[in-house]
Design a protein that fits this description.
This protein has a single domain, classed as Roll (CBS-domain), CATH 3.10.580. It is built from 5 helices and 4 strands. It is about 35% helix and about 15% strand. A hairpin with a 5-residue loop joins strand 3 and strand 4. The chain is elongated, with a radius of gyration of 19 Å. The chain is of the alpha+beta class.
């Protein structure tokens, strides 16, 4: 079996210049947890997930928390203002740019399954020979397809 037999071809992507707010609209309206980040020619330049967004948006203490167990408090209004400002940040500031893993549509399914499990990735972009993102493999979709194509034989 090849990656092309399992990949999702309806791929949602964002550009590095999109804001986190725009990214969140893509993620929530399509009920997905991450997307490839592509340039104007649909070449992969990064990956971004809901986890990246949460890590970026979570409040950071203004000082190191020491032995005394100091707790920082942000007033509700202040936190919402900070959050609104952070939502205007461009995706390129929080996306994963290095060591990007991807699959080819002609890769063996087993190799891709090992990649996803070894690196604990939730999604893996599928890139064609021209370097364009043409699909995505997600863990959930792999499990569903394994159930349909293999168990139902």
């Amino acid at each position: 079996m090849k990656v092309r037999d399992f990949m999702i071809t309806k791929v949602f992507t964002v550009k590095p210049s999109n804001t986190i707010k725009e990214l969140l609209q893509v993620l929530t309206s399509n009920r997905i947890g991450g997307v490839p980040v592509v340039d104007d020619k649909d070449h992969l330049v990064g990956m971004v997930s809901d986890g990246d967004v949460l890590r970026y948006l979570s409040p950071k203490p203004p000082w190191p928390i020491g032995i005394a167990g100091l707790v920082y408090i942000i007033e509700e209004g202040d936190f919402e203002d900070v959050l609104r400002k952070k939502l205007d940040t461009q995706v390129k500031e929080i996306m994963t740019k290095r060591n990007l893993l991807f699959a080819s549509p002609d890769d063996d399914f087993e190799v891709t399954l090992r990649l996803l499990s070894r690196h604990h990735y939730k999604k893996l972009p599928v890139i064609n020979g021209a370097g364009r993102v043409i699909g995505v493999l997600s863990r959930g979709d792999l499990i569903n397809n394994i159930s349909k194509k293999i168990i139902s034989y």
